[in-house]
Write a structure and sequence with these properties.
Protein name: Diacylglycerol kinase catalytic region
Keywords: ATP-binding, Kinase, Nucleotide-binding, Transferase
GO molecular function, one term: kinase activity
Largest sheet: 15 strands, mixed
Number of strands: 19
Order of helices and strands: EHEHEHEEEHHEEEHHEEEEEEHEEEE
CATH class of the largest domain: Mainly Beta
Helix content: 25-40%
CATH architecture of the largest domain: Sandwich
Number of domains: 2
Distance between the termini: 31 Å
Pfam family, one: DAGK_cat
InterPro entries: ATP-NAD_kinase_N (IPR017438), Diacylglycerol/lipid_kinase (IPR005218), Diacylglycerol_kinase_cat_dom (IPR001206), Lipid_Phosphate_FormReg (IPR050187), NAD/diacylglycerol_kinase_sf (IPR016064), YegS/DAGK_C (IPR045540)
Length: about 300
């Protein structure tokens, strides 16, 4: 059984406009399958869970990184996989589409359907985040790509309240510049695998990276790997406004931000972070909660259709 979870509003509504053509192309190779459209935020979580409980073997996520994030969350309930043998296929059509910049996924519908039919899939790590809820969001959330504590929350707020007509890269870059001008550094306490790596020291942001890219193509973690059983951690130190604008921003898309002296790169499996005030946490381009927060790697927790074993 196959089910497609479709967010017609993703990509500024372009997914909805193009869905009929996408569905037709999928059905030519796969035959009839279940189509479940989201209507509001978090819908994809419940739709995915129910589809898996009904015996669906392959879920196709159709939308942006946020839709993908919700679908990933739908694969889990009460901390465990609902259907461990189920597979996730991806048709990303959102503003950022950062996940596919890290791994090699099928580039066409024809390649994707072929991978589904042959059962071609590779294991992918997932990160579980236990956070303080913002409102009604669940306390435990999962993400597949990148989370950010500090600057990411304000950036996502600005992006989500924009028209996104300028495309992913420009939209995120402008939001990042605006948030940078308004941001302040925070006092953070951080533990990685039980070791204190930051004890009430000022930090600009902290990134937990399973993938390499976020924010519409920002190359934040060049060494991150989706199936190595670890996440990469970037600690951005006490940068001045001048440094944020003239040192960090120019390096965000080059993969060279880690060369700055006030940047520290680490790897681990379990990270706990709190701050002198509640900080918003974004993951996969979505606000998922606020600090205090605990991040834990779940090795090979999900099978991704057509994902190249040797991810970049």
């Amino acid at each position: 059984m196959i089910a497609a979870i479709v967010n017609p509003k993703s990509g500024g509504g372009k997914t909805g406009e193009r869905w009929a053509a996408i569905q037709s192309a999928l059905e030519r190779e796969l035959g009839t399958f279940t189509v479940l459209e989201t209507r509001q935020k978090l819908d994809a979580i419940g739709l995915t869970r129910q589809a898996l409980k009904d015996g669906t073997q392959t879920i196709i996520a159709v939308g942006g990184d946020g839709t993908l994030n919700e679908v990933v969350n739908g694969f889990f309930e009460d901390g465990v996989p609902i259907h461990p043998a189920a597979k996730l296929a991806v048709v990303l059509r959102g503003t950022g589409s950062d996940f596919v910049k890290t791994c090699k996924l099928p580039g066409t519908i024809e390649e994707l359907t072929q991978a589904i039919k042959t059962g071609d899939a590779s294991p992918c790590d997932i990160v579980r985040a236990t956070v303080k809820p913002i409102s009604e969001e669940p306390r435990e959330r999962y993400f597949i790509n990148v989370a950010d504590v500090g600057i990411g929350g304000p950036v996502v707020n600005l992006v989500n309240n924009s028209s996104k007509r300028l495309g992913g890269k420009i939209t995120f870059l402008l939001a990042g510049a605006q948030a940078t001008l308004q941001s302040k550094n925070f006092m953070m306490r951080i533990k990685l695998d039980g070791e204190t790596i930051c004890d009430q020291q000022p930090r600009y942001f902290t990134v937990i990276a399973n993938g390499k890219y976020f924010g519409g193509g920002m190359h934040i973690a060049p060494e991150a790997n989706l199936n190595d059983g670890l996440f990469d951690v970037m600690l951005a130190g006490d940068f001045s406004l001048f440094e944020k604008i003239f040192k960090i921003l120019p390096r965000l898309y080059t993969g060279k931000i880690g060369q700055l002296k006030k940047i520290r790169m680490l790897r681990g499996k379990r990270l706990h972070i709190n701050a002198d005030r509640p900080l918003l946490i974004e993951a996969d381009g979505e606000l998922i909660g606020k600090t205090d927060a605990l991040f834990e790697i779940l090795p090979s927790a999900l099978q991704i259709v057509g994902m190249n074993d040797k991810v970049d």
